[in-house]
Write a structure and sequence with these properties.
There is one protein chain. With about 350 residues, the protein is an alpha/beta fold. The strands form six sheets. The chain has an eight-stranded mixed β-sheet with strand order 4-1-5-7-10-11-14-15, with helices on both faces. A four-stranded parallel β-sheet has the order 17-18-19-20, with helices on both faces. The longest helix has 13 residues. The mean pLDDT is about 90. Its EC number is 3.5.1.1.
């Protein structure tokens, strides 16, 4: 177990993999993994904090494209094991699937009262123009930040390019710019400039501090099905007939609309009769599903498709996997999908 000195603010850095964990060696010019047990030598700016900083490195380190629900569980259990020893946690993660991991972790941690900040970088931390150092340094500062002995941001968040977002509200929007992430339907929780400006009115603070519960059961028998003009009936039906399928995130047009083709509605109804849960989210980056507003969504509403409101696809698929893993009945899953569990949807 990694121990911390409780006389100073303490932060545990968990390195799972990703671009941020590479440095360019001066003599050879090659990129090699950061020695995270020597993180203060690799990033000497961290020495200016009077923090107790410890690190854990996953072996092997993973490209985020290879992250699976089992990795989410490993991250959650790692934090749970050290939860009482540290004031906050920074998870270093590849950017491609970071929003999925942040969303999944947000559901897994019930009664969370400490920061879990995910960050990464577009360039390796050891390159000259890297964004990795700032992302790491500020994430550590946010993870340690307290007011009246309570965490300033007791949430699962993503910090990137001077902005802190609620993890389950965030999407990756750009593969080339430093501003890789965005949260369209919910404001930033903090903005880093000369000072870090925390927007407390948007941060969730627990009214009653309960005992931390970490629920790591996940059911991955789900699929994302994206609507597009001319979608083929055989393809659509074959997806909904996948053996063992338990849930579908249906990415629809606009405010939750699909073609009015009778075959499509019939396919959906057959799936619903087999107790497959279908959750309707919009393909649009902003806005929300409002089934029944147009004729093209009335049939979905009548059939029993669940509105995802303003859930991101990442938050929707991980919420569905999480709820299906808890042993709930189909009806209970549908009820919880409409509930705001961790700030992932707007009422």
């Amino acid at each position: 177990m990694v121990k911390s000195d409780k006389t100073r603010p303490s932060v545990l850095i968990v390195y799972t993999g990703g671009t941020i964990g590479m440095v360019q060696r001066p003599h050879s010019g090659t990129l090699t993994p950061v020695k995270f047990d020597q993180i203060k030598e690799e990033v000497p700016e961290l020495n200016k904090f009077d923090y107790n900083i410890k690190t854990i490195t996953f072996n092997p380190a993973l490209d985020s494209s290879n992250v699976t629900p089992q990795v989410w569980i490993k991250i959650a259990k790692t934090i749970e094991k050290h939860y009482n020893q540290f004031d906050g946690f920074v998870v270093l993660h590849g950017t491609d699937t970071m929003a999925y991991t942040a969303s999944a972790l947000s559901y897994m941690f019930e009664n969370l009262d400490k920061p879990i900040i995910l960050t990464g970088s577009q360039l390796p931390i050891g390159t000259l123009r890297t964004d990795g150092k700032e992302n790491l340094i500020t994430s550590v500062e946010i993870a340690a930040a307290k007011e009246k002995d309570s965490a300033l941001v007791p949430e699962v968040c993503i910090y990137f390019d001077f902005k802190l977002y609620r993890g389950n509200r965030t999407v990756k929007r750009d593969a080339d710019q430093f501003s890789a992430f965005h949260s369209v339907n919910y404001p930033e929780l903090a903005v880093a400039g000369v000072d870090i400006r925390f927007r407390k009115e948007f941060i969730h603070y627990p009214e009653n501090r309960g005992i931390l519960k970490v629920n790591t059961q996940i059911n991955d028998q789900v699929v994302i099905l994206k609507m597009f003009p001319g979608i083929n009936q055989k393809v659509f039906d074959s997806i909904l007939c996948i053996p063992g399928l338990k849930g579908v995130v249906l990415e629809t047009f606009g405010s939750g609309n699909v073609p009015t083709s009778r075959w499509l509605i019939n396919c959906i109804r057959r799936a619903l009769k087999k107790d497959i849960v279908i959750l309707n989210v919009t393909q649009c980056q902003g806005g929300r599903v409002s089934m029944g507003q147009y004729e093209t969504s009335i049939e979905l509403l009548k059939s029993g498709v669940i509105s995802g409101k303003d859930l991101t696809t990442e938050a929707a698929v991980t919420k569905l996997m999480f709820l299906l893993g808890q042993g709930f009945s189909t009806e209970q899953v549908k009820i919880y999908l409409n509930k705001n569990l961790r700030g992932e949807i707007s009422n």
